[in-house]
Write a structure and sequence with these properties.
Layout lengths: L1 E5 L4 H12 L3 E4 L10 H11 L3 E4 L12 H20 L2 E7 L22 H16 L4 E5 L1 E3 L8 H7 L3 E4 L2 E2 L2 E3 H11 L6 E4 L7 H11 L6 E4 L4 E2 L21
Helix pairs in contact: 1-6, 2-3, 3-4
């Protein structure tokens, strides 16, 4: 089996690459400097040369390159293009979206039937991309992700956030959608063989951010100062039993 990953150097991409490699996949990263998102002929040539069984589209515009309307291009037009190219070549296409398709005013927990309400910015672009990917490739799998939990600082994950705060103000009224990177990677691999649909990946069954941050602090040797607050009220959790995401307390025993 062979897989292409866009965004392979990101937090989720790194974890997914390791997971797929351990499962016996030959993994190829998409080099945006060699095959830019706005170069359709180059994309076609690359796919035809690699001939993957699956393409995992994780990329976001993390670093500006000067391309006009780069956010819209990378978050909306590029996944739509890749979905169509994969359909034409019978390549399984998996697109990662975000819980940010819902605003802070939306009422969770969210299910696959919940209607996104983001009308601008990153969340709106991801919601638009979901719709266009479905239209371009009815066989595509879409996976909405929450905040990822890594093992150390240095990437866009919850541990990095905690490590950068002098005092972590953690609301007991906020129930974030979140999961450990390794569990997300395992589930994304399994979804490559799942029925085409929208899936929600979240390991937070019932815990607020103060509880999660405190449990992570316990796991990492109590190196952060966690302050309980109630200044952010939001239930962001996503519920989808089909995704088979393990509960947070499997990796955070102090939550049990």
């Amino acid at each position: 089996m062979k897989a292409i990953i866009t965004g392979m150097n990101g937090a989720v991409g790194t974890a997914l690459s390791a997971q797929l490699s351990a499962a016996g996949y030959a993994v190829v990263g998409w080099d945006r400097t060699a095959v830019p998102p706005n170069n359709l002929p180059a994309a076609e040539q690359f796919l035809d040369a690699v001939r993957p069984d699956a393409l995992f589209h994780l990329a976001v515009p993390s670093q500006a390159t000067g391309i006009e309307n780069e956010g819209w291009l990378v978050n909306v037009e590029w996944p739509t293009q890749l979905a169509q190219l994969c359909r034409q070549r019978c390549i399984r296409f998996l697109f990662t979206s975000s819980v940010m398709v819902f605003t802070d005013d939306a009422i969770g927990p969210f299910t696959p039937q919940s209607v996104p309400d983001a009308r601008e910015g990153y969340g709106f672009e991801k919601a638009t991309a979901e719709q266009r990917v479905r239209q371009a490739n009815p066989e595509a799998v879409i996976a909405r992700l929450g905040w990822q939990i890594g093992t150390s600082p240095g990437s866009n994950n919850m541990i990095d956030f905690l490590a950068k705060q002098e005092v972590v103000r953690a609301s007991e009224k906020w129930f974030p959608a979140c999961s450990f990177l390794v569990d997300t990677a395992v589930t994304l691999q399994s979804l490559a063989h799942a029925a085409p649909d929208l899936y929600l990946l979240d390991s937070n069954d019932r815990w607020n951010f103060y509880q999660i941050a405190s449990a992570l602090n316990d796991l990492h040797g109590s190196q952060w100062r966690i302050e309980k607050t109630a200044d952010f009220v939001y239930d962001q959790r996503m519920r989808d039993p089909r995704a088979n995401m393990p509960s947070l307390d499997k990796r955070l025993p102090s939550l049990a």
